[in-house]
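Aim 2, interim progress: modelling of the pyridoxal-5'-phosphate-bound target.
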Amino acid sequence: MTLIDLRSDTVTRPSPAMRKAMARALVGDDQYGEDPSVNALQETVAGLLGKEAALFVPSGTMANQIALKAFTQPGDDVIVGKQSHAVFHETGAAAANCGVQFTEIGEDGLFSAEQFRAAVKPRGHAIYPPTTLVEVENTHNRSGGQIFAEDDMISICAAARSLRVATYLDGARLLNAALATGTSAKKLAQPFDLVSVSLSKGLGAPVGSVLAGCKDAIEKAVRYRRMFGGAMRQSGLLAAAGSFALAHNVDRLAEDHGNARIIAERLAECPGVAINLAATRTNIIVFRLTPPGNSAARVVQACREDGVLLLAFSETVLRAVTHLDVDAAACRRAAAVIAAASSARVH
Ligand SMILES: *Cc1c(COP(=O)(O)O)cnc(C)c1O
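Predicted structure of the complex, ligand included:
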């Protein structure tokens, strides 16, 4: 039985055509700025996101850490949405590397400019930790790939600028948001000082993220990438995969969104399952088992026995993610398997 792996869109493997592009890549020592494939990728992403410069980094987690390091001092306060990647999925890196604290606001990873203004702690106060950075995650992973409203991003960034708070967009899946809303990635990235996109999620490259921003911010990022051990050498082999992904795998993200809808709509009909169907517009499906129901661990196990891999986020919350290695037929089959496992009686 071939497994249908919906644990994440990171599980994709480079296609034969992508591997060919990697094998052909021209390379040089990137720390001398001499890797033509890295330089080409960075230029492409700077253009795509409408920023002055860009920097290839080994992972989205490192991109997020570099952003914190570039804009904060130890003891600072960083405002984020609830359940952000930075808080949940980076093993406490923000505290260990940058010495910052997070203030989580809003709901489901989303928040408004009013909520942001209310949470900002001023500089120069005898007691408060100064808020120096606000981070938006778009799409938002743990809330089911939810899209952050463009108007909110614009007004949050305008408020931040007036309060001298830096702005960072964790856009690991920004291209999913762009496709789902029909708004260009450049427009979505425009209000932010610094933006990251992942190449190794739905785009299907094996490794890497790219940071984009003004020259000043990217110069700092170059230093902190080195400090975090992420400066590489002939990384053009990896960058070539990223460039291939941007050339071939962006528009097809729409298929992933359609396939996620197949699963979400099936689960919405399921007794014992709660899902925010209206918010499921990209490639992530997050759903909750309602009492008296199964445990997430039990559902994961039952699905695995039927050839479908999912991730448990908690005792009752599960995630499935569609990507370029699963087609519509596989997703229909997965939907049936997940629905059966989720609504099965507990014995
Ligand atoms: C996956 C992800 C990251 C981290 O990317 P890695 O390459 O896995 O380190 C950061 N932010 C978000 C929103 C993500 O989904």
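The chain has a mean pLDDT of 97. The longest helix spans residues 253-268.
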